[in-house]
Specification:
With 152 residues, the protein is of the alpha+beta class. 17% of the residues lie in helices and 30% in strands. The protein is elongated and about 85 Å long. The chain starts with 6 loop residues before the first strand and ends with a helix. InterPro entries: YceD. This is DUF177 domain-containing protein.
Length: 152
C-alpha cells in the first residue's frame, strides 16, 4: 500500500507514496470487524540535534475495531469513537495514521549519544577536534579581562 501524504511529524515520517507493508488479521466479531497486525515501512527525517539525515524502518502494531452498519455499537457510539464499515469496505487510513504518528518521537536523533552542533560555528561537535572553542567572551565580562591583564 502506498503511504498517504503527511504521514509523520515535522522532523521525521514516512515519505509520501513509499510502500507500506500491512500484515493484518481481520476477525469477525458480533458487532463488527477487529483489525490487528503490523505496519512496516521506510522512515526518513533529520536528527533534531545535528540535522544529519535519518533513515530507518518503521514497524508499528495496529489494532482497530470497525462496527457493522446498524449494529448496537454503531447506534450507541459517537461517529469518531469507533471506526465504521462502509458497506464491505474498511478505511484503514485514520487508524494507520494514528498508529504511525503516535509511535514517532518529536525530536528524533541519529544516535542516542549525538552531541549536536557547535553553537558558534554550526559544525557537528563530533567532527571537531577536542578542545574546540571560539574564544568569544561575553561582553558583560569584558572589563574583567582588563583587570586580569593589568595585574600580570
Amino acid at each position: 500500500m502506498p503511504a498517504p501524504e503527511d504521514l509523520g511529524l515535522e522532523l521525521i515520517g514516512v515519505p509520501a507514496g513509499a510502500e507500506l507493508d500491512l500484515q493484518l488479521r481481520m476477525e469477525s466479531v458480533s458487532e463488527g470487524v477487529l483489525v490487528s497486525g503490523t505496519v512496516t515501512g521506510p522512515l526518513v527525517g533529520e536528527c533534531g540535534r545535528c540535522l544529519r539525515p535519518i533513515s530507518d524502518t518503521l514497524e508499528v502494531p495496529i489494532q482497530e475495531f470497525y462496527a457493522y452498519e446498524h449494529s448496537t455499537t454503531d447506534e450507541t457510539t459517537d461517529e469518531d469513537e469507533v471506526g465504521r464499515l462502509q458497506g464491505d469496505l474498511i478505511d484503514l487510513e485514520p487508524a494507520l495514521r494514528d498508529a504511525v504518528v503516535l509511535s514517532l518521537t518529536a525530536n528524533p536523533v541519529c544516535r542516542e549519544d549525538c552531541p549536536g552542533l557547535c553553537p558558534d560555528c554550526g559544525v557537528p561537535l563530533d567532527e571537531l577536534p577536542a578542545g574546540h572553542g571560539h574564544g568569544q567572551l561575553d561582553p558583560r565580562w569584558a572589563a574583567l579581562t582588563q583587570i586580569q591583564h593589568s595585574e600580570e
